Amino acid sequence: MEENNKKKMTDLPFQIEGSLKKLFIGADEIKNKDYDSIEFLVDKLIPQGTLCALVGESDTGKSSLLRQLALSLVYGDSDFLGFKLKESCRNVIYVSTEDGEMATSVWLNKYFGEEIAKDDRLSKLKYVYNTEGIIKNLREVVSTNCVDLIIIDSYADLFTGSMNNSNEVRSFLNMYNNIANEFGVTVVFLHHTKKASAGMVPNKNSILGSQGFEAKMRSVLMLTQDDSDESLRHLCIVKNNYLPEAEKSMSYVLRFNEHLAFDITSDRVKLNELALEDWIEDAKKMKEDGMSYREISDKLSKKGFTVSKSKLQRKLN
Question: If you classify domain 40-273 with CATH, what class do you get?
């Protein structure tokens, strides 16, 4: 008798009515959406509808890179620095806590130079400088508009708790994650790395504050200065839940141009080659003394450093 009752109970439908129906989604409904891979807003770099971050030291051009991304999206470009952009509504919100209208205007005019900007495209990029009630305001706007991307520049200015308290960090980020999940909008936070990590191999553990920040991000990009050419930057994927490790082992080399924007080069560099090396100054002096790369490599080897000719060429040229 008890066995029959159990069987009858397993046959009962799992029904949820009213407003809760939107919150409790059946696996059948999710599966039937027929996604076969993760969709990216920016191929390889920024997964769609997630929380992501761009981190790095000060003065590497992080804000410029994100402004450039915003313009590529609203202008309807097919790619951003060679990375394919997803075709969508191309509306972007930029929350700016450090630069006001004047600084933004200066950057935009520098970016476009003599080119005549298209006001109809620029109108699809909305800047927000007043951050009071920002979550409520963002939710209201994205609930009535198709928005591809929200940029938060910067995280440290909006987060008012203890940056080393994981629970506080995750609670804060959950407010943005709820917006991302509900409306399919991507949110990118600009954040900083620890001063002590300067010169080290780019790594997600270099991010300032609690590990809870990195844990909530589906992708973390790091922008670092090249140690031999001040115009070059390395864009590194230090975390991405949806890419194989091989895709994250090398940086993409960017060149910072006179328009305060970036150009992609054809170069890529292994992340473990980006750390400042103890042998660099010695090698520079040897090169100035007329020694060949092979001679320098041999001499460094005797000092305990294993440095290939190709690595010497890249670091010293």
Answer: alpha beta
